[in-house]
Prior knowledge:
Layout: H1 5-12, H2 22-34, H3 40-57, H4 68-87, H5 95-113, H6 116-120, H7 123-159, E1 164-166, E2 169-171, H8 174-185
Antiparallel strand pairs: 1-2
Amino acid sequence: MYIGKEEQDAIHSPSSNGAMGRDDMIGFLAHELQHAGPDQDNIAFRLDNALALLERNALGRTAQQLNTDEYRVLSSALSTASARAYANPPAGLSNAQVMSGLLLVSQLLIFWALPDETRAASSTMAGRLRDLARVLRNHMHNANLLNRVQEGLAADMMTDAPPVKSRGLPVDSTAAMKLFIRSMTAPGHVDAA
């Protein structure tokens, strides 16, 4: 389930002015986590969206503390996402990578629930959490891209599309694309021969 850059940008900035009400933001974040899965394409897509929102709203200097109800809702939604992601890790990621990434998200929620003064005094911790959340988000985004190319290749195989031509020479990059995808999704099982 890959969507294009325009749609991703619209999701990552849901309103025209880039700001969304707190209740809407918490609701959207919980929705993305609760609806991650059941397949790996959807998990990567939803976690990418959730991480973009967390990066912007939980770790910014003006982030307001999560209240108990918000924390409970988001923690419950994260539990659902974790179970589904463990069962179907996104392309190119092992169960251990996904689970350690979601543990990081859990720690991010705990940090967000700390009193404002405590978080303000912990800018180093916020920076590290932000950086690592971005790494996880990048992995989710890359999984989305891999899925998009795989879906396109599968569709091409069904339509018997002719090879792409460049400067009049027939060029079929399918084998190279498939090899790269395998190297990214199952690096221990790649045979270039």
